[in-house]
Amino acid sequence: MCKLIRAVLFAAAVLLTPALAKAEGDTGWHLATIGGREYVPLEEFCRFYRLSAVEPLPGEIHLSGNAGTVDGKHGRPYVFIDGIRHTLSFPLLERDRQWYVSRTDLSCLFDPIFRPSRVPVRFSFRGVVIDPGHGGEDKGARSRNGRYEKEYTLDTARRLGKILRSQGFPVVFTRTSDVFVPLEERVRIAQAYPDYVFVSLHYNQSEPSGHGVETYCLAPRGAPSSNNGTWVRRVDYLSLPGNGNDLLNTLLAHEIHLELVRLRPDDPEMDRGFRRARFVVLRDNPLPGALVEGGFLSDPMDSSWIDRPEYRQRLAEAVARGLGHFFQATEVRASATRAISVKRGSELQ
Fold first, then answer.
1. Residue 282 resides in a domain
2. Which of 85, 209, 269, 319 could form an S-S bond across to 273 if both were Cys, CB 3.0 to 4.6 Å?
3. Are 89 and 145 in the same domain?
């Protein structure tokens, strides 16, 4: 226990060093500590990203500029970026007529979305590990017509794989039939493909039932999972294998979620948000990863859509489009990195 506490305290100290949370290329932020957490004045945030700010109503803020738009409220755990819901690690705050954004959200949410070309990329990603959730005795959620999640995820995965292969992307599946694959084995499969990204496909269930789609990526180090509110556990400060890709995880999940919410544009409740979690397949995975919840099998409307092959095809196409946007953004950065490396190498000769 003492070792765990020391590790947590050390991780927290590293997390709170100013350099870690600076947006790439910035010269420094004037940090404010509020409730034991570090925040950046929204005025500086807006200046850096060239956004203008207005307060349409007390306790509400609207930002706009070439980078995009942000709509938020004091104390609310999420914002709308370009009209799409994104869960924050920590809420926006207003104190004495001054707004603040958490340092974690600055570096791990807004910066990769506003400046995807600045996300560090070691190499070009060339393929996808597709993870159909559940399987075998692990049936997953049950639909209102008696079918199980494991059937829908495998069908969607096959459709996604076919689309990606037709576009020239190699794919690997964590399962190709109705078999049980432990979560740890799914991670081991992914580890064999370091230049791939990882997408896990699921359908949701809750009581009372929710409605709509969610896209998850790993919670940043020192931040809570979305379903835990603002409560940060000691173990949340520990560095996980997946945290090495925090910025890429954000960009990947963001691009996929943008496409998913467009599946039913006439449904105002379709967007349940970009969210954070510490699922094993994201937590222990060295690849950039996202987990898709494509709707609620416990909801009559969602269940009827999910049961239609044409909807699962459209969902697979949406995920593929999101992956395509991610590959485009990271390839630009990877190409620039390669050019810099070649230039530096020639200078040393």
1. yes
2. 85
3. no
> Residue 26 is part of which domain span?
2-114
CATH at residue 62? 3.30.457.10
**What pTM was estimated for this model as a whole?**
0.90
Question: Given CA atoms 12, 17, 23, 25 in this order, what sign does their dihedral have?
Answer: negative
H-helix or E-strand spanning residue 79: strand 78-81
Is residue 84 assigned to a domain? yes
Q: Tokens 């489009």 sit at which residue?
A: 321
User: Which tokens belong to 139?
Assistant: 């049936």
Query: Can you read off the two tokens belonging to residue 332?
Result: 């630009």
- pLDDT tens for the chain, 349 residues long, are 434 434 443 444 344 343 334 454 455 899 999 999 999 999 999 999 999 999 999 999 999 999 999 999 999 999 999 999 999 999 999 999 999 999 999 999 999 999 999 999 988 999 999 999 999 999 999 998 899 999 999 999 999 999 999 999 999 999 999 999 999 999 999 999 999 999 999 999 998 889 999 999 999 999 999 988 778 999 999 989 999 999 999 999 999 999 999 999 999 999 999 999 999 999 999 999 999 999 999 999 999 999 999 999 999 999 999 999 999 999 976 665 544 443 444 444 4
The answer to whether residues 169 and 230 belong to one domain is yes
How many domains does the structure of the chain reveal?
2
- CB neighbours of 89 closer than 8 A, spacing ≥ 6? 102, 104, 105, 108, 109, 219, 220, 223, 224, 276
b/e code 207-238 from CB counts within 10 Å (16+ = b): eebbbbbbbbbbbbbbbbbbeeeeebeeebbb
From 82, 114, 146, give the residue that closes a domain: 114
Kindly state whether residues 299 and 329 are assigned to the same domain.
yes
